[in-house]
Amino acid sequence: MQVNVTPQDAKVVINSRTGSVVMNREVTLDSCAVAQGNLSVTVNRQANVSQPDTPFGGGQTVVTPQTQIDLRQSGGSLQSVRSSASLNNVVRALNALGATPMDLMSILQSMQSAGCLRAKLEII
User: Fold this and answer.
1) What is the greatest pairwise CA distance in the chain?
2) Residue 5 falls inside a structural domain
3) Of 2, 56, 60, 68, which is the most buried if we count CB atoms within 10 A?
4) What is the pLDDT of residues 78-87, one digit of tens each?
5) 103 is in which domain, residue-wise?
């Protein structure tokens, strides 16, 4: 028996009281710039290519994405977020820095309003 499952649209749910963030699949961002209060966010994503040393060695060329996240807690200057950055990595880094649930909500709402959040946003 074969079951076909239709993939759901990407969705992010935020609990405004606890700051919990739940995503139903890998959510990525389009290019944008972010500044919120005293937080600044920089997300850089780069695709690296790994090739075998010898042409007849049987190896395959593969692309490996590398994401670097830099967060600063100082004057909230405008920072760029490159296309295809993982929202999961950004949220983790913001939480590690001590961003409040309101900071997180505000940043994600602004990303959605700017059209760079590749997901539906629901705040409960």
Assistant:
1) 58
2) no
3) 68
4) 555 556 677 7
5) 11-50+60-123
